[in-house]
Design goal:
The protein is α/β, with parallel strands linked by helices. It is about 30% helix and about 20% strand. The strands form eight sheets. Strands 18, 19, 20, 21, 22, 25, 26, 27 and 28 form a nine-stranded mixed sheet that branches. β27 and β28 (about 720-725) form a beta hairpin. It starts with 20 loop residues before the first strand and ends with a strand.
Length: about 725
């Protein structure tokens, strides 16, 4: 923003305001100011009414769109439901716009015909004061992709820098069988649909090969309810383990049936398991449709203790409907003391979160308890649990704001604007959330904002009912019921895990612990690759080696990883023609694998040579000097730098003890000045002089890599006092 550069796309560097459509995934209500931040940085007006034909359409989807009302003023259109099929239909409309020169209104008219799309211009809320009296809106049904798995991408774009989801993520099913009454995702993703185990396995193997990722995550709202989980694991675990690919089941509900699965696929120490207890009161648990009694949880903890588990994570939700009829703090304290007494050596990590009523769930009309109640419960628990129990809690005030917008109306758009203009950003991250900003913004725009947290009647006009889910009858039925303690959803089929095959696969992998050969790879980094850090480059290398099926050796221990050794790390922003990596192998690498290795790198990487070590091969640690070529975009800066080189100006080096003056010849072994290019030969490795630091000092520029191109052209070693080029 300081440089007045509009936000642009990462792939093509196109300013956002030049796009045809900008889409947002509103996964949570606390992300709303992020949408405004992106629009602001992209030079796109906040309000849909202020955006003419020259601006992109703003489309908002995600779970929070189950109530689009608070965002109505900002979006041109909303999309509710599964987007795999709809995105193709919408892109075709945009193609038609380009071909026929359609206006924004004409595009929206066509968009409104796409199932799942709600156009903001077609919705109007009517109020008497702050009370919602009527809504004018078309009937829009949440889109359901029954064959969603057919659209699973097995050749995805792989980021060149490490991302949060740095793994293969494959969906087993969509929806949930449990239907806990507080769970928004469980109801929003109905109906339950599952993918055949063989189809899942085929996608996993294909995606692992196409991406080079070493982790596979089986995605589901509740993995334990996927009926073919044992069949799938028996099929995929052995070949993946043999390749060093790990498998995670992030949403596997812990019970006596699933402990064997967890222990069988984990090659790590028995460190931590997670329970979503929700409530320590069976009364509240049954009312919320949690199908597990407290005594059963204690039995599971006992079994885990006997099997050597060291840490257990527990999640509790406070403020659930009916909490005023029990003592939540006392129940949780008693629960934790009983769990602690089973094995006092187990470390219990407890997270407590306030209940937030969400639209289209059986608890959608319930009261959300205020900060006084929630903080009182949390403080009472923290004072009374054993010292070995660690208690953390979700920000109570953030939950209040989340609750306001979850069931809020269109009046709240002004509050979002006011909060953003007063500094609200990244509210989902605790270190950035500021309740005072939101409190002031809400009071200034809607007055008594706590009315949005009050209990409601099912006959009331609710803003979120402009979106139809097709499951109102089921939701209404669930409102009236509690779990009877007898009926359970159909879980996975009773079948034996092939532990013998798992064991053989792990034993087969052990051959990778012994290195028998070393492959040296020389490569160049140019263009975009100069902006990738050393760790990211090594991850790119590892993925390429896996895809090329190079037989890489692994380290042993807690965190196994490929055995790679590099020369001195290239500073960020430099190009290089001479980077080296030694790859230790557990068997000789085929010529075909070496030949194809270069095909698996992103733009900017170029494999120059690859060969096996022999007795004469020098170790990478022998690299002692690096040669850099420096060119400038400004001739005046070139002249300034060249003058300092010719005059052999002393160099000021920053050290831990402060600034240190170095004679030119002590830091720079050789220097050449010619034709707008300067070459320097400097010591390599830690503590060496960096050319960009010299540019900053001698030319007085804050961002040296913005005015100069630095290329490492060669590296050298010393033999018998003679400097020789390293090959």
């Amino acid at each position: 923003k300081d440089s007045h550069t509009p936000l642009y796309t990462l792939e093509t560097f196109t300013p956002l305001y030049e796009l045809d459509m900008v889409g947002f995934n509103a996964a949570c209500e606390l992300l709303y100011t992020n949408i405004l931040q992106v629009l602001d940085l992209g030079n796109i007006p906040f309000f849909a009414k202020d955006r003419g034909d020259s601006y992109p359409l703003i489309l908002i989807g995600g779970e929070a769109v189950s109530n689009p009302a608070p965002l109505l003023a900002f979006a041109d259109a909303f999309f509710a439901g599964d987007g795999e099929e709809a995105i193709v239909e919408m892109v075709n409309i945009l193609k038609e716009k380009k071909a026929k020169g359609l206006t924004k209104d004409e595009v929206l008219t066509r968009m409104a015909k796409v199932e799942g799309v709600l156009c903001s211009r077609d919705v109007e809320f009517f109020y008497e004061g702050n009370t919602l009296t009527s809504i004018k809106a078309p009937v829009v049904y949440k889109r359901i992709a029954h064959d969603f798995h057919k659209y699973e991408v097995t050749l995805p774009v792989v980021p060149s820098i490490r991302s949060v989801q740095d793994r293969v993520s494959i969906q087993l099913d969509r929806g949930c069988k449990n239907l806990c009454k507080f769970c928004h995702a469980g109801y929003w993703e109905l109906p339950y649909r599952k993918v055949d185990a063989k189809d899942v396995a085929a996608k996993i193997f294909s995606t692992v090969q196409n991406t080079g990722f070493s982790d596979v995550s089986l995605h589901s709202l509740s993995v334990g309810d996927y009926s073919n989980i044992v069949e799938l694991l028996n099929y995929i675990v052995p070949p993946l383990v043999e390749k060093g690919v790990s498998i995670s089941l992030p949403s596997l509900r812990v019970d006596l049936q699933t402990i064997d699965i967890i222990e069988s696929i984990s090659d790590l120490k028995k460190t931590s398991l997670t329970f979503a207890v929700e409530s320590a009161s069976d009364t509240l648990r049954y009312r919320a449709y949690k199908r597990l009694a407290v005594k059963e949880i204690m039995h599971i903890i006992t079994v885990l203790s006997e099997r050597g588990w060291q840490r257990i994570k527990l999640y509790f939700m406070i403020g659930l409907p009916g909490c005023d009829q029990v003592d939540e703090a006392a129940d949780i304290i008693a629960f934790m003391k009983k769990a602690w007494s089973i094995n006092k050596k187990i470390q219990y990590n407890v997270t407590i979160s306030p209940f937030v009523p969400k639209p289209h769930t059986p608890f959608q009309y319930e009261k959300q308890y205020d900060e006084n109640y929630c903080l009182g419960v949390i403080h009472a628990i923290k004072r009374s649990v054993p010292k070995s129990v660690t208690i953390k809690n979700h920000d109570v005030y953030a939950s209040l704001i989340e609750g306001v917008f979850a069931r809020g109306d269109s009046l709240l758009s002004n509050a979002i604007i006011a909060a953003y203009r007063n500094g609200a950003r990244l509210d989902l991250w605790g270190e950035h959330f500021d309740f005072t900003i939101w409190d002031n913004a809400l009071q200034e725009t809607v007055g008594n904002w706590r009315r949005y947290l009050e209990k409601r009647h099912s006959q009331e006009l609710s803003p979120w009912h402009i979106i139809k889910t097709r499951y109102d009858t089921l939701i209404h039925k669930k409102m009236q019921s509690s779990w009877d303690g007898k009926t359970f959803p159909v879980g996975f089929k009773k079948a034996a895990l092939d532990k013998e095959a798992f064991k053989k696969a792990a034993q087969s992998f052990e051959k990778r612990y012994k290195a028998t050969a070393t492959l040296r790879v020389k490569y160049a980094r140019k263009g975009k690759a100069q902006y990738m850090g050393h760790i990211d480059c090594m991850e790119i290398f590892k993925r390429a080696l896996r895809m090329a099926q190079v037989p890489v050796a692994y380290t042993q221990g807690y965190n196994k990883h490929e055995r790679l050794m590099t020369g001195p790390a290239l500073p960020l922003g430099y190009e290089s023609l001479c980077e080296f990596v030694d790859v230790e192998l557990y068997e000789q690498c085929s010529d075909a694998a070496v030949h194809t290795l270069g095909n698996y790198f992103p733009d900017g990487f170029e494999i120059i040579s690859a060969y096996h070590h022999n007795a004469a091969t020098l170790p990478l640690q022998s690299i002692a000097y690096s040669r850099y070529s420096i060119s400038f975009s400004d001739s005046k800066l070139y002249d300034m730098f060249a003058t300092n080189v010719k005059n052999k100006t002393n160099i000021v080096k920053k050290t831990k003890k402060g600034l240190k003056n170095l004679p030119f010849d002590d830091a720079i072994v050789q220097s050449f000045v010619s034709n707008n290019t300067i070459e320097l030969l400097v010591k390599a490795g830690e503590g060496s002089i960096r050319p960009d630091s010299l540019i900053a000092d001698w030319c007085g520029v804050a961002h040296p890599l913005a005015v100069a191109t630095i290329v490492k052209t060669a590296v050298y070693y010393v033999e018998d006092g003679v400097i020789k080029e390293f090959q």
